[in-house]
Design brief:
5-stranded parallel sheet; alpha/beta; 19% strand; Rossmann fold; disordered C terminus
Length: 273
């Protein structure tokens, strides 16, 4: 029985190595490949001197690389901090400082937007860039390409237990600065077990991931799928019709979303008038 976040993927890779784990547009990865990529990412982070329980922030749109970076930091013995890709640079800078983030995983385009705030991020020491576009150096920060993970030497991860910190999720910051919520491995694994049980999820399920991975319910869509060996289909939300098309195209069996704002009733409008 998995007790750590990344062990859910390890267990599913052991049971059904050739089953689809993630789909993103035309890309897909099976559980055996996902487990191998997570190990590579862990080696990359450890090579950047990530220490036990140190934080890795991931500031990317929803994609397979995003998931690999998050769970790779966990497999290394670190803590992942998924950052909502819609946040403004000042909000991201606050998260990097407040969470004592050591390594930032982002794209060259996003790095350019963050450049003015990174000089104030006192704990940050390395940036991992996902994508082929070159980026200018940032003073005081080591830069490494995400593609280098395939060449990273094998390194022993730090030992963690289920009560250790696994992730920090930040609020949207709509009513002030984003605030961090700490989750342990036990919190995340228990949530995945509980949801997958009452929803009666099976390895045949295909879950459409439309909510942000920085949101607890969005993260739970991933962990619930990984817990039972199902497939999570990653989607960056566009329009309602795109969700409907994705449900049909990907043969989705599960979808989590938030309700739309309630239209005011005529009596409500009259009362406020």
């Amino acid at each position: 029985m998995p007790s750590l976040v990344f062990e859910m993927i390890t267990a599913s890779a052991r049971r059904t190595p050739s089953a689809d784990a993630l789909r993103e547009g035309g890309r897909k990865t099976i559980y055996a490949e996902l487990q191998a990529e997570i190990r590579q990412a862990a080696n990359l982070f450890l090579g950047l001197d990530l220490q036990r329980s140190e934080r890795v922030a991931v500031y990317l749109e929803k994609r397979i690389d995003t998931v690999v970076a998050m769970f790779g930091s966990s497999a290394a013995g670190g803590v992942f901090v998924p950052v909502n890709p819609l946040l403004k640079p000042e909000q991201v800078g606050h998260i990097l400082n407040d969470g004592n983030v050591r390594i930032l995983v982002t794209s060259p385009e996003r790095l350019e937007l963050l450049r003015p705030v990174l000089i104030h991020c006192r704990d940050l020491r390395a940036v991992v860039l996902v994508g082929d576009k070159p980026a200018e150096p940032v003073d005081g920060l080591e830069r490494v390409a995400w593609s280098e993970r395939v060449n990273a030497p094998e390194r022993a991860p730090f030992r963690v237990i289920d009560g250790d910190m696994a992730a920090i999720l930040y609020t949207s910051g709509s009513t002030g600065r984003p605030k961090g919520v700490v989750l342990s491995h036990r919190n995340i694994v228990a949530g995945a077990e509980g949801v997958s049980q009452y929803l009666e999820n099976t390895p045949d399920d295909r879950v459409l991931s439309v909510l942000p991975l920085s949101f607890d319910y969005g993260l739970n869509q991933l962990t619930t799928a990984f817990r039972v060996g199902a497939c999570a289909v990653l989607m960056n939300y566009l329009m309602p019709r795109d969700v409907i098309r994705a449900v049909e195209r990907e043969k989705i069996t599960g979808l989590a979303a938030v309700p739309p704002p309630r239209e005011p009733r005529r009596s409500d409008r009259g009362a406020r008038a």
